[in-house]
Amino acid sequence: MTWTKTHLVGIEDLTKEELETIFRVTAAFKGILGRSVKKVPALRGKTVVNLFLEPSTRTRVAFEVAAKRLSADVVTITGSASSVIKGETLRDTALNIQALNADILVIRHTAAGSPAYLSRLTRIPVINAGDGAHEHPTQALLDCFTMREHLGDLKGKKVTILGDILFSRVARSNIWALTKMGADVTVAGPSTLVPETFARFGVTVSHDLRSALADADVVMLLRIQHERQSSTHFPSLGEYTSMFGLNKTRASWLKPEAIIMHPGPINRGVEIDSELADSGRSVILQQVTNGIAARMAVLYLCSGGSPEVLGENEDG
Fold first, then answer.
1. Nearest residue to 126 via CA among 150, 95, 153
2. What is the value of pTM for the model shown?
């Protein structure tokens, strides 16, 4: 089990073996989070800067908590508090953060490719916390880790991702991760949000909700990404809900043991009824909890931590 990457800018360029390494380290850190003392000294003396130039709750807080659980010093900069609003370029912002002796840069940005761009400019690890409609790698990692907790090996498992696929970075990262892990992935929703071109990713494209949900082991709901849409892709939210919202009747088409997931934020009553979001088959809050351990794993590995040493310490 090895890890040689300095940056995490996407799932697309990771191998199945690298994903397995992250999952093993995530499991070790989740065990630590279950202790009375939830901190380890892995990043003591290092500074993690969270540069969030796009709104976030779960991801930002999870990265902050993850870094602090690793004993790092944490600085979070939001868009309204950065010099970007004064006209400073992203390049200059990142290089100034590096010059201030930061050790890791976590970035969320509206522009696809911005983390990859910064990874070529800086000497410090760059971690993608979401770049436009491109990728959200740590979300896919925590999602797959959560699925593995409930389903075991994902090879041959059917995962249906339902909602706004076209504008979703979560969908893209999950497609890359799940297909690498051998899952059978179906993307479903209205044809305007789930174009046939997604078949090139090696997934099944469906506009028939009943067939998409049949035999699924997992259904992952996605919200409508209004902030990334330049035009209307369906008549109204009410019409979307009436056709593709997951309600009690449609949930009955699922296998009894199927789990329901959502990366958040949830639009209750739109993509999913509140009763289902809060039901026993929902693992939405488990996803949030697992997000801390998954981001601890990424921070640890990208900062040079050895997965073998961690494994030995956890076993002993």
1. 95
2. 0.94
